[in-house]
Amino acid sequence: MFRPRPDxxxxxxxxxxxxxxxxVPAGASAAAAVLLAGLFRIRETPVSGAPRLPYCMMGxxxxxxxxxxxVANRQACVVPVAPGMRIRVQHGARVALDGGAG
Amino acid sequence: xxxxxxxxxxGGGLVGAAIAWGLTGQGLRPVLLDEGDVAYRASxxxxxxxxxxSKGFGAPHxxxxxxxxxxxxxxxxxxLAARTGRDxxxxxxxxxxxxxxxxxxxxxxxxxxxxxxxxxxxxxxxRMIPMGPELREMLPGLGPRVVGASFTPYDGxxxxxxxxxxxxxxxxxxxxxxxxxxxxxxxxxxxxxxxAVTAGGQRFAAPRVVLAAGLGNxxxxxxxxxxxxxxxxxxxxxVTERAAEVLPMPVTTIRQTxxxxxxxxxxxxxxxxxxxxxxxxxxxxxxRAVACFPWIGRLNIVRAWSAxxxxxxxxxPIYDQSESCPGAFTANCHSGVTLAGAHxxxxxxxxxxxxxxxxxxxxxxxxxxxxxxxx
Lengths: 102, 375
Prior knowledge:
The structure holds 2 protein chains of 2 kinds. By secondary structure, chain A is mostly beta strands.
């Protein structure tokens, strides 16, 4: 669905999207990595469970929430990739307290 | 001018909308005048508690009125759901106030004991629960600074914005007329059972008028022979991102919504008509929340706001019918959510019948301020 522009060849870094290794341009966002990986969702909403992908890509809409390096609900479009970064789909609301009432 | 409606309700917030909808249930066709977004709109900033346990210290009539409202709430929520399809998110599992020091715990215990003594035969069920397995089971994730809590079974919470929307929708579907951008102008006509006002470029006339304009009541009331000495009191609220359910019941200053957000609040500032936010106050709210529940500190904050409570000199509601212009009523309070049950289902029938119940509301008249405004 998304491909990098052929005329630009920036250095790349390796990240893991849902556990799969992927090389993405240095300086790209974690949300861009998810798009390049071709995932059909970056999160499922907490109330209805609807699947979502990054939308505004500029830190406004909060539709790109993802689990990054083990931290839930991060705005993936404002997080630059780093070598070895682990990006996972955010499934519903984050767990605030292990063993909570839910 | 002949009457255009059965009643004019001035103020489209939670108080006005609850009363206006309640009047439709009494067979009346009211008009609801809503000032617009220039108003202070306390109902948009509400924390959303249906709260009983702290209300009416030294004023058992206020405790009884609040309890009566909490008792009406299930029927209110069910009625709104049936008529509008909206779930206002009512939960009434009881509620807790947390104490962060032995001194706070002792003070709270004394206060609750006095509330029970003042309640007399009406009763006041409460428990002081010291920190231990029982409290940890009631509220997961309590912090080490918590020394205990007070609990009453009457407390709960709801979604104030959905409530406001549902009241408006139920009102208009029951035949009421809602007029937005309708600030009441100066050309007020007030005579016994004969009232007319201009708002939003239209003239309205009715044999009844209800002043439910929040802070606007202070200026409106004298025009109808009423007294509503209310002042703004600022409160600030912080809301976190949505999290999986942790809190099974609300705490005085912390509640988790049905969608998962954690709301933090309960600040008090006397700053007049100033709706700005102060970082120092937000910091105190956040620090206390994290002391109560350390895991809250890991959540992202997504919004914060302030709003102005509608506060009488003694902190209690004010209800009156005008003596010089009978048919004119005033309703003032800072608990638009908690008291919605009473306003829609107890107060509105009194207004429709033309007399406030002196047993329930006599002590909540502004006559109590007649000899200087007590603090």
